[in-house]
Amino acid sequence: xxxxxxxxxxxGLTQKAFSTLHGIKxxxxxxxxxxxxELDGNHxxxxxxxxxxSFEPIEIIYPTGVRLRVEANLALIAQLIRL
Length: 83
Known about the structure:
Blueprint: H1 2-11, H2 15-22, H3 26-39, E1 57-61, E2 67-71, H4 74-81
Antiparallel strand pairs: 1-2
C-alpha cells in the first residue's frame, strides 16, 4: 500500500490515471493515500544499545497491522524494520 502511494506521488499522474494503469480502483488508491497521511511522520522511537535489556522483548508493528515481538537484539530489529 505505502509503496504504491509513493509510486503515485512520484509519477505525477492523477489518481484516476495511476489507478487505471495499475489495475486498482480509484477509491482504493484514494483510501490508501488518506491512510498514508495518517501514518506520515516519525512514529519510531530511537533505540540505543544501552536502552533495552536483553530479556525485555521489543514489539514491532508494521503499517499492515502485523506485530512482531522479538528479543532486544538491535541487529535483528534493524533487519526486521527494513522488511
